[in-house]
Amino acid sequence: MLERYSLKMPGNVYCGENAMEQMERILQGHRKAAVFTDRGIAASGILDYPLEQIRKAGADSVLFSDLPAEPTYLQAQQTVDDFRSSGADLIVAVGGGSVMDAAKLASVMSDGLTVKDLLDDPLAGKKQVATLMIPTTAGTGAEATPNSIVSVPEKELKVGIVNPEMIADHVILDGRMIKKLPLSIAAATGVDALCHAVECFTSNKANPFSDLFALEAARLIFENIETACLDQDAMKAKDNMLRAAFYGGVAITASGTTAVHALSYPLGGKYHIAHGVSNAILLLPVMRFNRDACLAEFSRIYDAVYADGRGAGRTEEEKADAVLKRMEEILHRLGIPVSLTGFGVNPTDLDTLVEAGMQVTRLLSNNKKAVTPEDAKEIYRQVL
Q1: Would you kindly state where each structural domain of the chain is located, as residue ranges?
Q2: Phi/psi of residue 186, nearest 5 degrees
Q3: pLDDT value at position 5?
Q4: What pTM was estimated for this model as a whole?
Q5: Burial of residue 324, with CB atoms counted within 10 A of its CB: 0-12 exposed, 13-18 middle, 19 or more buried
Q6: Phi, psi at residue 72, to the nearest 5°?
Q7: Which ranges constitute the DSSP H helices of the chain?
Q8: CB of 51 within 8 A of CB of 41?
Q9: pLDDT in tens, 249-272
Q10: What CATH class is the domain 12-178?
Q11: Which pLDDT score, from 0 to 100, does residue 311 have?
Q12: Check: CATH 1.20.1090.10 for 183-382?
């Protein structure tokens, strides 16, 4: 565990019933809001909530909804360029991780700076415009992090741009924004949040700050994810999942993800597998690989989830196995893919995947158990 650590969080976080009504207060003093979203959200009616609040506050708005899911850095650049000419003095991101990540990039881009520049020097960006993040999935935790993930086609890899200037000024967590989320998206993003919690808790960079948020995120997810995904009207469970996803994002900022995310980046960059799905596919193989090195951490997760005392007399090994079994059960109940079958990945691609995955040293170095190229190849082989 790190002996020196820090905690960075959004300036204001509003959560719970009717949290969206706080927008009017946030918008005071702003003339024009640039609303970042995607076409699916724009067509779903979800956008009506924030747009109504912007009108109530007497501010103008301009909509940016052409950003594709999991964009390349060039597609993110186009959105940034469009924003620059808008004259907006507040960015409101209503969406999942890709939308919020693009908004964060736009918020730190001074004239002449490009997304490519930030790939080379992430700290070159400085906050130019205040941001409000309103997640429409309970998963990525992007509303809490200083990270922006973009695809780099020439490397067939996703890359994280990390800059503390990108941390949001305001966050609203309102269960109404995820009420009608399709099961496949709710499940994949929910398991992404689970990955964040477990990875950060078992990371080499884990510390008391990250542990506080990661452990509570894990508890909330284990207790609520199935109900939140399978019952559209389970608003308490949905609010709990939004909170868990946010906590997972805070844990990322204080600690960092590990080999699950590292090895998933090539799957998104080369095969365009959704981020949450690729993480879900790799979660169990990586955690089974890590088991012996993370017995104490898995045991603490068990104790947090099952605080009713049922773990009395169980060994660390038994508790670890119970946590792994519970994760497997969640994947099964929610129908999330657990293999790369159907995604166009072939055994002949193994060496390429391993080479790309081993480049993500920023995250691999966080993994409690060192991952060799041979280990990575075996992990990928298990999900082919």
Answers
A1: 12-178, 183-382
A2: -60, -40
A3: 87
A4: 0.95
A5: middle
A6: -75, 165
A7: 23-26, 39-44, 48-56, 73-84, 97-107, 115-120, 183-201, 208-230, 235-254, 259-271, 275-290, 295-305, 316-334, 350-357, 361-364, 373-382
A8: no
A9: 999 999 999 999 999 999 988 898
A10: alpha beta
A11: 67
A12: yes
